[in-house]
Amino acid sequence: MRELPAINLTLVSEALQGFLSEELRASGQKRYVLGLSGGLDSALAAALAVRALGPERLEAVALPGPTSSAASLEHARLVAEKLQVRLEVVDLAETGRLAAATLGIGEDRLRFGNLMARLRMVALFDRARRSGALVLGASNKSEILLGYSTLFGDSAASVQVLGDVWKTHVFQLGLALGLPREVVDKPPTADLWPGQTDAGEMGFDYLEADPVLYWHHEGGMNDEALVAAGFAEPLVTAVLRAYRRNRFKWRPTVIARVSSSCINVDRFLPRNPR
């Protein structure tokens, strides 16, 4: 009960590759453009795209900012070399500083992190327009449910290939697809400031949180049932506090319904004509 159910890694990988191929075909665009951060999520999204479409149909862009670690760019290059993808580096450090000064952000690290996440998407959508591409996102299911993302930043991609994949399984898929161990093994980080990690900010790591999220979100177990099943009460409280507080991020654009056919509310409209 306290474990996250296992998945068939080969089957999931093949399904995600098929999804990427079909979404690109249906869009009429030529390729994907992806921000390659040096982290595991973007590395896995890149690997899936390359397997689905070939390296020539993925445009990888590294977007370092003022607080980015040197290791992030080094790892992005390592992944690009492994996947035989050309990597473009667009340095957003000065742009970030100027925008932060204009907005009066000062020393507020979270506001600055949100700013940089949105600036990176500005750069990626610009590259997509230039190249006839879709912006490929790399947010995983755990991040989305916990709200560990920036609205209209990393959540703003055209396609989220990992959005239904738990972070626990992202680690497993990264190993199965042969991604560099330096990338797979390092602590997840948004690289917002030196030494920053996801676990340090949230107060728990993904391997702890994923079973709680699974049995609550998919299994329907409430706080009391989770504790009775053996999960530590402080962990359950912390995970579900983030889950409930950030639910507004799950649907970034909520449409006010005044008809019987409101898009994304009443019904799904045909999307992928043959």
Structural class given helices, strands, pairing? alpha/beta
Kindly identify the CATH topology: Rossmann fold
* Number of beta strands: 5
The SSE string, one letter per element, is: HEHEHEHHEHEHHHHHH
Low-pLDDT residue intervals, each spanning 5 or more residues: none
Mean pLDDT: 93
Tally of helical runs: 12
Distance between the termini: 43 Å
Radius of gyration: 19 Å
Write down the domain tally. 1
Helix content: 40-55%
CATH-level-2 architecture: 3-Layer(aba) Sandwich
Question: Which of globular, elongated, flat, extended, rod-shaped describes the shape?
Answer: globular
Please give the CATH class: Alpha Beta
Query: CATH superfamily assignment?
Result: HUPs
Largest sheet: 5 strands, parallel
Strand order of the largest sheet: 3-2-1-4-5
The proportion of strand residues reads: 5-15%
How would you portray this structure in words?
This protein has one domain (9-249): Rossmann fold (3-Layer(aba) Sandwich), CATH 3.40.50.620. 51% of the residues lie in helices and 7% in strands. The protein has helices spanning 9-27, 40-53, 70-83, 93-103, 109-131, 141-146, 167-176, 181-185, 198-202, 206-218, 223-228, 233-245; strands at 31-35, 58-62, 87-89, 133-137, 159-160. Strand 1 (31-35), helix 2 (40-53) and strand 2 (58-62) form a beta-alpha-beta unit. The mean pLDDT is 93.
